[in-house]
Amino acid sequence: MDAILKILEENALASPEHIGQRLNRPAEEVRRAIKQMEEDKIILAYKAIVDDEKADRNLVRAVIEVKITPEREGGFDRIAARIARFDEVKSCYLMSGAYDLLVVVEGDDLKKAAAFCFTKAFDH
Fold first, then answer.
1. What pLDDT, in 10s, does the model give residues 39-81?
2. Closest CA to 113 of 87, 78, 81, 80
3. Cβ distance 67 to 100 under 8 Å?
4. Which H or E element spans position 101?
5. 3-class DSSP state for residue 70?
6. Phi and psi torsions of 115, nearest 5°
7. Strand bridging mode 89-94 / 101-107
8. Of 70, 74, 64, 62, which Cα lies nearest the Cα of 101?
9. From residue 19, how far is each of 16, 40, 67, 73, 106 by CA, in Å?
10. What angle do CA 22, 24, 25 make, to 5 degrees?
11. pTM higher than 0.70 for the full model?
12. In terms of Cα–Cα distance, which of 28, 9, 11 is closest to 20?
């Protein structure tokens, strides 16, 4: 299973025949394994990786380190969920060290990416 996942993470369009060839397994066995992983919600989605420049998208990405005080009985989870629900947020990671969360934000331009920090998720 891990070998199939690794190949799909490298290329989500890899066919069961291709995967089977690489792993020396029958394509039908690979197809069943993939179907089972989809049903078990191990595989949640398939995603294209886009070259923004070639696609004529001039997006700005900002990486924000956030220090927070955990909420009683909610820990970091509720705060992270609140931040992650915004469309601008592309990922949110729990960190150790001086900061608690690492948030990756995307905007059409620098002004919009910066405005997110001051007007949406981090206002008090």
1. 999 999 998 888 888 988 888 888 989 888 777 776 778 888 8
2. 87
3. yes
4. strand 101-107
5. coil
6. -60, -35
7. antiparallel
8. 64
9. 5, 20, 43, 45, 34
10. 110
11. no
12. 28
